[in-house]
Amino acid sequence: MTSPTRTTARIGDPLNRVDGVAKVTGQARYAAEHPVEGLLYGWVVSSGITKGRIVRIHDEGARALPEVVEVMTHTNRPQLPPFDHSYTDAVSVPGSPFRALYDEKALFNGQPIAVVIAGTLETARYAASLIDVEYESESHNTDFAVALTSQFVPNDKRSTFEPPQSRGDAHAAYDAAPLKVAADFHVPAYYHNPMEMHASTVVWEGNGRITVYDKTQGPQNVQAYLAAVFGFSPEHVRVKNPYVGGAFGSGLRPQYQVYLATLAAKMLERSVRVVLTRQQMFSHVHRPETVQTVALATDTSGRLQAIINDAATSTSRFEDYMETVCDWGLMNYACENASAKYTIARVDTYTSGDMRAPGAATGMTLFELAVDEMAYAASVDPLQFRLINYSDKNAMDGTPFTSKALREACAQGAEKFGWSRRTPAPRSMRDGRELVGWGVATGIWDALFEKTSAHAKLLPNGDLEVATAASDIGTGTYTVMAQVAADTLGLPIEKVTATLGDSALPKSTVEGGSKLAASAGAAVQHVCRGVAEKLLVAADQLEGQPLGGARMEDVTFAQGRIALKSDATRSISFGDAMSAAGLDTIEVEDSPAWHSGGSSQTRKSRNTHNAIFAEVKVDEELCVVRVTRIVIAVAAGRIINPKTARSQILGGVVMGIGMALHEETATDHRLGRVMNHNFAEYHIPAHADIQDIEVIFVDEPDPEVTPLGVKGVGEIGIVGTAAAVVNAIYHATGKRVHSLPVTIDKLLV
Amino acid sequence: MDTRVFGGTSQAGAAQSSEAIGISLVINGRRRDFVIEPWVTLLDLLREQEHLTGTKKGCDHGQCGACTVLVDGKRINSCLALAVARDGAQVTTIEGLACEGLAEGHGLHPLQQAFVDHDALQCGYCTPGQICSAQGLINEGHARSRDEVRESMSGNLCRCGAYTNIAAAVMEVLEKADTR
């Protein structure tokens, strides 16, 4: 029975993560951790050349080991479909999706070209080292700077991509303006590097059925992909991902390890597990390398007169990945003249893809570096500059925002940070032998919503189960679902079980774009309201009708009881209502109706915003930079759980600090290979790099944006963060660095 | 020795029969005997043979700390330890820490509870290594301040960026231990 001492969980409560105990005790099982009888281990052999063809794979040495079951290559693999459309997925981009082991062609360095399958992990790994490959190399190019000479705008664009809209005459206004800055900015490719390496366990169930434990952000996306590629009936493919060890976008599209594990399972009719190595994590999706030219001009009071914001990003030779890079600055600042141009350029790597706040983490960050330079050129405080040029509407297309509390975010962040105590001149603040710098930046991201279905099942004792085929990649989705369900039916959190990460559950969107809390949350609330309505109908069956035929608006649901609002003493337990109607369970499965589009006249922009304040300390002689303090104020609508939402923002900020100071992909272009493909040389922030981070959620009620008023917080934390840090470095040192990360060598020159 | 048959060949195989070595470990308080090849890491032994998958593999090169376990009370990267070189050792994994907590009459080990309370995790994949590392740090008795904790925990990477919350959780347990 419902314990009356437990309190009802409410939306807005800072509850502990409901999957926390499973994770801190080691009970949460990730993709490579589900025990399977008779499991075989697949070890991927990666191409040593960047471009050309495989002449011959010498696998005799590997096959000579008695424990080796098979060496799967393009010469002996099972049949695969011939056309590209079989290999597309829900979030693929135009082009020809990569097909591992399809033919003898090598398209990028590190491409999987064989899989050794053996009875033990150690044998598979050793046997893979015995494989010798003869290649015929062709010339390649992995140097983005070279590729830019043939940058282009593809005709066939990704469905979610819209080109930036220019306004006025930016070039003429720029020429005419009294104050101006212009610079070319660069960020390297970034690899997502979730702590869990991409892994799949394919369980061969027999009778044409497989169960796949996969590291993915969308189990139903992988289900549909595997069915199409390998000729399974979709209902015979079940994909599960109850726990995902981070992804940040790397699990949006099906990755090659799930393809290879399934191909091997099909070939051998056995269960197979494939886990990539950390080195191989640098052989697939990554944030594109980006160059951006920003030119800004103001009048003598610091009002923007012109924005020119051109960018180009890298993609592969076989697919056209595009992302929204240029729009953010044009949306965020009032300025009558703005132009933007976005192109892509091909390099011989795997296709780039979405990584945390794709396009904005780079495009808005680099734009905010230029804004800081413009503020200094106009002798205006950088925070004041942003307020002078503040736009209450989307400045790019003129549509109003459903809400935009960026002004409040700036004010609250500045207050908490102590911005008013900043002296503007570079090198004017100091702490012992360290120069102190304070920088600011703002960020913007989309508030997305996608129709999602959910299922709810209530038992007479008040136990409630809610389910949808969503994923929780550390985002707190389990907790959000449980909390929304508990709030809707007035239950303690302990009475609710949230289930996700299973393609057999009701249809859900992929976990990406910061849309799942809003989308899955709304679906859960909708079906729980359906349960509440059925409960009330059931209550009417009770003899004497103690609720007097009350309607939904007349009652409350709390602590496992339905009570009259007008007289709380008149109440019925869920169990009594259900038994009166002869119900063992109440179940509802549905998706909420929601129209976020509207006609062109009523169309609105839906966005989250932030203001980030950073303090750095820079050793004057050694130029070692420490980020000692961050305050980030976020305007993201309604926050379902401030504790888990705060963690999402912290994560974005930490990754942003990594962009500013640490992360960089170093490619040897002669080989076409990422040379720092490990955690010792591809630096991500460690404990010692991260000091105080304060997160403020600004009050921003917005019933219009999504059904729950939720905007999502997974990405907004990274947007602009690196700019705040790099702007602080300028304030500390007087040095402008236009190429991230800001490593010591760039400050010593 | 595991002699399950796969595909007509023994999993153990010829190499194992000639090169395998007998060892015993005390894993989470229970003595376990193994006959294993000398190239099996402690991490793979725990994950693939003992199915103690709470210990994670994040790089297999000693660069991320996800595989941290306690061997005779000291934190080590189990991916860099060959199991045969640890014959006779006491190994505590994240699964064993929970048992310690239960033995003390709590549901969870104090570090585990503090991690949950401070939301010192998101995806949870680095978490067992962080917690084992923190217990090792406490056992060492060197780190006292938050700066020292940060420095001494820097072998454990967290891509979700839960560092500030992890530091808060470790400090809470450290300070409670100090006042006991």
Features of the shown structure:
heterodimer, A: 749 residues, alpha+beta, Aldehyde Oxidoreductase, domain 4, 3 domains, seven-stranded mixed beta sheet, five-stranded mixed beta sheet, 17 helices, 24% helix, globular, disordered N terminus, B: 180 residues, Ubiquitin-like (UB roll), DNA polymerase, domain 1, 2 domains, two-stranded antiparallel sheet, 7 helices, 39% helix
Explained architecture:
- The complex is a heterodimer of chains A (749) and B (180).
- By secondary structure, chain A is of the alpha+beta class.
- Chain A folds into three domains: 20-24 and 450-590, Aldehyde Oxidoreductase, domain 4; 40-139 and 196-282, Aldehyde oxidase/xanthine dehydrogenase, molybdopterin binding domain (Aldehyde Oxidoreductase, domain 4, 2-Layer Sandwich); 400-448 and 596-749, Aldehyde oxidase/xanthine dehydrogenase, molybdopterin binding domain (Aldehyde Oxidoreductase, domain 4).
- Helices cover 24% and strands 23% of the residues of chain A.
- Chain A has 17 helices and 28 strands.
- Chain A has a seven-stranded mixed beta sheet, sandwiched between helices.
- Chain A is globular and about 85 Å long.
- Chain A starts with 19 loop residues before the first helix and ends with a helix.
- The relative contact order of chain A is 0.14.
- Mean pLDDT of chain A is 96; it is low at 1-5.
- With 180 residues, chain B is α+β, with helices and mostly antiparallel strands.
- Chain B has two domains: 5-93, Beta-grasp domain (Ubiquitin-like (UB roll), Roll), CATH 3.10.20; 95-179, Orthogonal Bundle (DNA polymerase, domain 1), CATH 1.10.150.
- Chain B has helices at residues 13-19, 42-49, 94-103, 110-117, 127-140, 146-152, 163-179, and strands at residues 5-6, 9-10, 21-27, 30-36, 68-71, 74-77, 90-92.
- In chain B, the strands form two sheets. In chain B, strands 4-3-7-5-6 form a five-stranded mixed beta sheet. In chain B, strands 1-2 form a two-stranded antiparallel sheet.
- The radius of gyration of chain B is 18 Å and the shape is globular.
- Chain B starts with a strand and ends with a helix.
- Mean pLDDT of chain B is 89; it is low at 1-16.
- The chains are: A alpha+beta (749), B alpha+beta (180).
- Chains A and B meet through helix 1, helix 3 and helix 15 of A and strand 2, helix 1, helix 2, helix 3 and helix 4 of B.
